[in-house]
Design brief:
Layout: H1 3-8, H2 13-22, E1 27-32, E2 35-40, H3 44-60, E3 64-68, E4 71-74, E5 80-82, E6 86-90, E7 100-101, E8 108-112, H4 119-133, E9 138-143, E10 148-155, E11 162-169, E12 173-176, E13 182-185
Parallel strand pairs: 4-7, 8-9
Antiparallel strand pairs: 1-2, 3-6, 4-5, 6-8, 9-10, 10-11, 12-13
Length: 194
C-alpha cells in the first residue's frame, strides 16, 4: 500500500479484521476504499430476492454454488474487504477458506440495495469499482430504489469497474452473460420493493 493510501485509510486491514470478528450478528462490516462500512441486517424482501436468485441459479447451473455473505478480499493488493449479498462460484470453491477469501473463482457477485443512507456510495460506486479491479466477471446490482437490475460485465482490472453495464427494468428478462449464461425473468421482483 502506498503512503498516500495509508494516510487516507481509517485503519489497517488487520485492525479492521479484528473489529469485524467481534461485531455482533446484527451488522455486517466491510472495508472498502480504506473506510469501514456498516450494513444492517437485511430485511425480509431483501433476503427473499437473494433466495429467489439462488433458486434460479441452482436450477440453471447445478455445477455452481451461491454463497451468502461470503467475505472477499478486494481492491488493489487485496487491501479491501467486502461481503456481497451473494457470490456465485464453482461448487465447493470456498471450502476450507477463512472468513475473507481471494476473489479468484468468483464468477458473479450480487448486491441487493438496502434502504440506508450509504447505499448509493457503497453499492452503485465503490463496490463495482472494487469488484471490477478484482477481476470478478459479473457484478449484478438489484436496485430496489430504481426497480432495475444492472448487469456489469467485462471487468477493468486497471482502473476498476466494468466496461459494459446493461440495465433492465423489473419485469424484463435479464441475460447473465458468460461465464454464467442464464436468463432471469424478473417480474416477481416488483413484489419486493417499498
Amino acid at each position: 500500500m502506498t503512503a498516500m493510501a495509508e494516510r487516507r485509510s481509517q485503519m489497517s486491514v488487520e485492525e479492521f479484521e479484528t473489529i469485524a470478528a467481534a461485531a455482533p450478528e446484527t451488522v455486517t462490516l466491510e472495508f472498502v476504499n480504506g473506510r469501514i462500512g456498516v450494513k444492517k441486517v437485511a430485511d425480509g424482501d431483501h433476503s427473499t430476492i437473494v433466495s429467489w436468485l439462488a433458486r434460479r441459479c441452482m436450477r440453471a447451473r447445478p455445477d455452481l454454488d451461491l454463497y451468502y455473505g461470503r467475505g472477499l478480499r478486494v481492491e488493489a493488493c487485496r487491501e479491501g474487504r467486502a461481503k456481497p449479498d451473494a457470490v456465485l462460484a464453482p461448487e465447493a470453491h470456498f471450502a476450507g477458506h477463512g472468513e475473507w477469501a481471494a476473489p479468484d473463482g468468483a464468477l458473479m457477485v450480487v448486491q441487493v440495495t438496502s434502504y440506508d443512507s450509504d447505499t448509493d456510495r457503497r453499492d452503485r460506486h465503490e463496490k463495482p469499482t472494487a469488484y471490477g479491479q478484482a477481476g470478478i466477471p459479473l457484478y449484478v446490482l438489484i436496485d430496489r430504489d430504481s426497480c432495475t437490475v444492472m448487469v456489469h460485465s467485462n471487468p477493468d482490472r486497471q482502473v476498476g469497474g466494468y466496461r459494459d453495464i446493461r440495465t433492465s427494468k423489473f419485469g424484463e428478462t435479464v441475460a447473465l452473460p458468460d461465464p454464467i449464461g442464464i436468463e432471469l425473468d424478473t417480474e416477481i421482483l416488483k413484489n419486493y420493493v417499498r
